[in-house]
Write a structure and sequence with these properties.
This protein has one domain. The protein is 85% helix and 0% strand.
Length: 128
């Protein structure tokens, strides 16, 4: 078997793993968001994350003023935007962790199933 054949096989296997993980994560996301317990999770997380974004703006503006001596306005704007983005993203990620955890578990399970299927095709088990 040549190197290019092995590379093609590995690329195909990588695509198969990626597709299976995306499928598992997608199904888990739908299942969690459609459940009664987490039906309004994303909306509530987005609404509550603006408080952290505001704190991020204030911290970013303060750090932007201190970091950019020549053009403090540029530092204020850049720091404020980055602080808001980081504050919102961190708060949103923390508040939606049930969805993220379910997606990660399902993706890992699907990857394991794909790896097991590949192993079985390469190492068939003969009973008897």
């Amino acid at each position: 078997m040549s190197i290019s054949d092995r590379v093609k096989q590995n690329v195909g296997y990588g695509k198969e793993l990626l597709a299976s993980s995306i499928e598992g994560a997608s199904k888990a996301r739908k299942a969690v968001l459609e459940s009664e317990e987490h039906s309004g999770l994303v909306k509530a997380a987005a609404q509550e994350s603006w408080q952290a974004a505001t704190i991020g703006v204030l911290a970013g503006v303060a750090l932007g003023v201190m970091a950019d001596d020549r053009k403090p306005v540029r530092g204020v704007i850049t720091g404020g935007i980055l602080g808001a983005a980081i504050g919102f993203a961190a708060s949103f990620a923390w508040k939606t962790r049930p969805v993220t955890a379910a997606m990660a578990r399902a993706a890992g399970k699907r990857i394991g199933e794909a790896r097991d299927a590949r192993w079985l095709t390469r190492h068939p088990i003969n009973y008897g």
